Prior knowledge:
250 residues, Rossmann fold, 2 domains, 6-stranded mixed beta sheet, two-stranded antiparallel sheet
Amino acid sequence: MRLGAQPRLILDRISLAIPSGQFVCVLGPSGCGKSTLLNALAGFVKPIGGRIAVDGDTVTAPGADRGVVFQDPTLFPWKTVLANVSLGPLFAGVAAVEAERIGRKLLDRVGLASRCQSFPKHLSGGMQQRVGIARALANNPRVLLMDEPFGALDAQTRTMMQHVLLDVWAEFGVTVVFVTHDIDEAVTLGDRILVMSASPGRIIDDIAVPLARPRADDVMFLPEFNQIKRRCFDHIRRESTNAFTQQYEA
């Protein structure tokens, strides 16, 4: 931070409640504070006002009750895939044998049982993200926080990863908060979509997604899908224009 720099308001009057087990997607124009919101939920950023709580427990720091998956899997390159996933339980005091059992079970669940002894550099981007999801679930979190985890993947791998995530979510029943810039992805995955304004970020729309689950690949051709997509698109276009105008005038 530059000396003498003025504080900048990033999020403004955010108020929301997320029921347990819900899959919530967060959309908004670039720079609106989507990642900051996720980092605050994770405990990496402390808000200057208000309160964040998980099941009534105030969030003051990162904790095992919240698993985080970033766009970059951030795996430890010197550790095997199994060691990466088992690390969280080990830090939590779980015995080594049990931590390994948890790691193997989760890697099997994301389709990587045969790659336990591989190192991250030997995995594709999609495989590394599957390891990241398994690692985030290893401490049995109540909430899974995901910051554009599939943004760097090609379209085919991205679709496959969406299916993997939905299968894992259905099995574990974890609450998911998923930040994305992709409207199709938000409508495909979410029970609910929160649309944010240009900076400072506010929630300007809270959209229920009443599409039946499980969702097939052709869900995007349904009229209901495209109605929700258009509603999101109109918000993002307007807010992106506002953000550009504010930046130009400044």
